[in-house]
Design brief:
The protein contains 3 helices and 4 strands, in the order αββαβαβ. It has helices spanning 2-13, 50-61, 85-92; strands at residues 24-31, 41-45, 70-73, 98-103. A 4-stranded mixed beta sheet has the order 2-1-4-3. The longest helix has 12 residues, at 2-13. The mean pLDDT is 86.
Length: 109
């Protein structure tokens, strides 16, 4: 009984993945050569281009457009900034989340 109650609490606290009713995608940011984020999850509108994800991360890290920042999907490739978040999610989601690794150095690719 205690275990079931605890599992229900964990499920409520954990962000849900997928494209939600507001048409937003859960993005999980993972550092790979840049400071870790205090809040590594963000919800971004599915109909927005990937450049919105880049802008969100730059703002969160407090870095300018002149500073280099590399973003990779699932640690494998750099998406085109014009690619839609929904399309990237449909093709590359992991456990209901779009995993975006970020670094100041070209770690992958």
């Amino acid at each position: 009984e205690k275990w079931k109650k605890r599992m229900a609490e964990v499920e409520k606290a954990e962000p849900k993945g997928g494209i939600d009713k507001d048409k937003k995608v859960l993005i999980l940011f993972k550092d790979a050569g840049a400071p870790a984020l205090k809040k590594p999850n963000a919800r971004i509108s599915a109909d927005k281009p990937f450049r919105v994800v880049i802008q969100h991360l730059r703002k969160t890290l407090q870095i300018s457009n002149a500073e280099t920042l590399y973003l990779f999907i699932n640690g494998t490739f750099q998406p085109n900034p014009d690619e839609l978040v929904a399309d990237l999610y449909k093709c590359f989601n992991t456990g209901g989340k779009l995993i975006v690794n970020y670094s100041y150095e070209p770690t992958w690719g």
